C-alpha cells in the first residue's frame, strides 16, 4: 500500500520586512543577508497570530468536508507551544470543526518534529488505511532584535494530510536517522526567544547531513542520478545550499546542474518567508511543487530533516501523478506577493507586543486579515476567534 502526503497547505503572516532594509538598520552589508544568509524577506508574525491560528489558517486551505470526516488523528509538531499541558492539536481540532472521535496530540523535537509526525502518521495509516492523519508543522522563529539570529527569523504553518494512495508524495521504506545530545540551539522553559550557538549549529547541521546522507546511500545503493531533487530543512536558505554542495562533491555535471536548478525552485518560498522551524523542510517541498516545471510523476525526491538538540533524518518519496491536485489550487506566489511590507521599527514594535506565557490581556491587531486569529488571554485561557466575513485585502479567496 502506498502511504504519503495527500495534500499540503501553507499559511504565514500577511506582513514582512525587506531584508535589505533590515541590513541597513543593523549596519550590515545587504549582501550578507541576501547572499550570505540567502534571505530576501522575513515574515513578521503579528501578536494576533500564534501556532494554533497559523495552523488553522493553513489547514482550511486544503480541507474538504470529506477530509474532515476521514481525519481521525491530528499530530501537531511545534517548538513554539502555547501550553505545557494541553496540546495545540486540541484547540486546532475544535477551530477546524473536526469530529470528537479523534486523537489529537502535540509533538516536539525542534525542527525535526514534523518529520517525526509524518513517520508516526505513516504507521497509523498502515494500520488504519481508511483514515487520514492531519500533520501540522507550525512555529514562530524568534531570536531577538539585533541578534545574529535575527535575519533568520520568520514564521508560519504547513498542514499536511497523510493517507493511503496519496496525491503528492508516496513515502519510500528506507530512511536513516541520527540523534546526539548536543547544545546547538534550545529554548529553556520561560524564555520566548531561542538560545543559540550559531556557528556550532551550522556545523552540526552539516555534519548530521553528511552522516544521514552517506548512511542512506550505503543502505540503498542509490547515487545522485536516482534523485530528481534534494530538499533540506532551511533555517536560512544558504545553509541548504552548503549541504547540497556536500552532496554534489565529485558529482557528474548533469547531476550538479539538475539538483542545483531544482534547489533554487525549492528554496524560493523559504527565502521569502524565513525560518518556520519544523515547517521549513515542507515549505521547501511546496516551493518545489509550485515553482519547478520539471517535477513529474515517478521522480524520487530526497528530504533532509534536522532539529537542533539534535536529531536528523534523511528519507525519500516518489512524486505521484496527481500532485498538482494535492495543492488545492492555491496560488502561493500570489499570496506571498499580496503581503504588506512594514518598516523595521514597526516590526520591532510588533515583536515586543506578543502575549506569551501567563500574561493577561487583549490583542487588538485589527488589520490582521487571516480567518483565524488570537484575541488575548483571559483567566489564563487563550481566546481564539474566526472572522465571520471575508477580510480585505483578500488573500484568502479560494483561487489565490
Ligand atoms: P553571523 O555570524 O552574523 O554571520 O550569523 P556570518 O558572519 O557567519 O555570515 C553569514 C554568511 O554570510 C557567511 O557565509 C559569510 O561569509 C557571508 P558562510 O561562511 O556561511 O558561507 N557574508 C557575505 N556574503 C556576501 N556578501 C557579504 C557578506 N558578508 C558575510 N557582504 C548565523 C550567521 C547562522 C550564525 C546566525 O544567523 C544565527 O545564529 N542563526 C540562527 C541559528 C541557525 O539558523 N542555525 C542553523 C543550523 S541549526 C538549525 O537548522 C535548527 C534551527 O532551525 C532550530 C531548530 O531545530 O529548532 C535553527
From TrEMBL:
Return the similarity comment: Belongs to the thiolase-like superfamily. HMG-CoA synthase family.
Indicate the segments forming the Hydroxymethylglutaryl-coenzyme A synthase N-terminal domain, all copies.
3-164
Catalytic residues in the record: 79 (proton donor/acceptor), 111 (acyl-thioester intermediate), 233 (proton donor/acceptor)
Under InterPro entries, the record lists: HMG_CoA_synt_C_dom, HMG_CoA_synth_N, HMG_CoA_synthase_prok, Thiolase-like
Instruction: Tell me where on the tree of life, at the top rank, the source sits.
Output: Bacteria
Kindly list the positions annotated as binding (3S)-3-hydroxy-3-methylglutaryl-CoA.
Answer: 29, 143, 242, 275
Q: Which GO terms describe its biological process?
A: acetyl-CoA metabolic process
Would the keyword Protein transport turn up in this protein's UniProt record? no
Which organism does this sequence originate in?
Liquorilactobacillus oeni DSM 19972
Entries under Gene3D superfamilies matching the protein: 3.40.47.10
Segments forming domain Hydroxymethylglutaryl-coenzyme A synthase C-terminal: 176-245, 265-354
Alphabetical list of NCBIfam families matching this protein? HMG-CoA-S_prok
In terms of SUPFAM superfamilies, this protein maps to: Thiolase-like
Official protein name in the record: Hydroxymethylglutaryl-CoA synthase
Q: Which GO terms describe its molecular function?
A: hydroxymethylglutaryl-CoA synthase activity
Which keywords does this chain's UniProt record carry? Transferase
Amino acid at each position: 500500500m502506498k502511504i504519503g502526503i495527500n495534500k499540503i497547505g501553507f499559511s504565514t503572516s500577511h506582513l514582512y520586512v525587506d531584508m535589505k532594509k533590515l541590513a541597513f538598520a543593523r549596519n550590515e552589508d545587504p549582501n550578507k543577508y541576501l547572499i550570505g544568509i540567502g534571505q530576501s524577506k522575513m515574515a513578521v508574525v503579528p501578536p494576533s497570530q500564534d501556532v494554533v491560528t497559523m495552523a488553522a489558517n493553513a489547514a482550511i486551505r486544503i480541507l474538504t468536508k470529506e477530509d474532515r470526516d476521514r481525519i481521525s488523528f491530528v499530530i501537531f509538531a511545534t517548538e513554539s507551544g502555547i501550553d505545557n499541558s494541553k496540546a495545540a492539536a486540541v484547540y486546532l481540532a475544535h477551530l477546524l470543526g473536526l469530529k470528537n472521535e479523534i486523537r489529537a496530540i502535540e509533538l516536539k523535537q525542534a525542527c525535526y518534529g514534523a518529520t517525526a509526525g509524518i513517520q508516526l502518521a505513516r504507521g497509523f495509516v498502515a494500520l488504519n488505511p481508511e483514515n487520514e492523519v492531519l500533520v501540522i508543522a507550525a512555529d514562530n522563529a524568534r531570536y531577538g532584535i539585533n541578534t545574529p539570529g535575527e535575519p533568520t527569523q520568520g514564521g508560519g504553518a504547513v498542514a499536511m494530510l497523510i493517507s493511503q494512495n496519496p496525491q503528492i508524495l508516496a513515502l519510500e521504506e528506507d530512511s536513516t536517522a541520527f540523534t546526539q545530545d548536543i547544545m546547538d540551539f534550545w529554548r529553556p522553559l520561560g524564555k520566548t526567544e531561542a538560545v543559540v550557538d550559531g556557528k556550532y549549529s551550522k556545523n552540526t547541521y552539516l555534519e548530521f547531513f553528511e552522516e544521514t546522507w552517506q548512511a542512506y546511500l550505503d543502505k540503498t545503493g542509490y547515487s545522485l542520478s536516482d534523485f530528481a531533487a534534494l530538499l533540506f530543512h532551511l533555517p536560512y536558505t544558504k545553509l541548504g545550499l552548503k549541504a547540497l554542495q556536500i552532496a554534489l562533491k565529485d558529482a557528474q555535471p548533469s547531476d550538479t546542474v539538475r539538483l542545483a536548478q531544482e534547489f533554487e525552485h525549492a528554496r524560493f518560498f523559504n527565502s521569502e518567508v524565513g525560518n518556520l522551524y519544523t515547517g521549513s523542510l515542507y515549505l521547501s517541498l511546496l516551493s518545489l511543487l509550485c515553482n519547478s516545471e520539471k517535477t513529474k510523476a515517478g521522480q524520487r525526491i530526497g528530504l533532509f530533516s534536522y532539529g537542533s538538540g539534535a536529531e536528523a533524518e534523511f528519507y525519500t518519496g516518489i512524486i505521484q501523478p496527481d500532485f498538482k491536485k494535492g495543492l488545492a489550487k492555491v496560488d502561493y506566489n500570489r499570496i506571498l506577493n499580496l503581503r504588506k511590507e512594514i518598516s523595521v521599527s514597526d516590526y520591532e514594535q510588533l515583536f515586543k507586543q506578543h502575549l506569551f506565557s501567563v500574561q493577561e490581556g487583549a490583542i487588538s491587531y485589527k488589520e490582521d486579515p487571516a480567518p483565524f486569529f488570537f484575541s488575548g488571554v483571559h483567566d489564563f485561557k487563550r481566546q481564539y476567534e474566526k472572522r465571520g466575513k471575508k477580510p480585505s485585502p483578500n488573500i484568502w479567496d479560494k483561487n489565490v
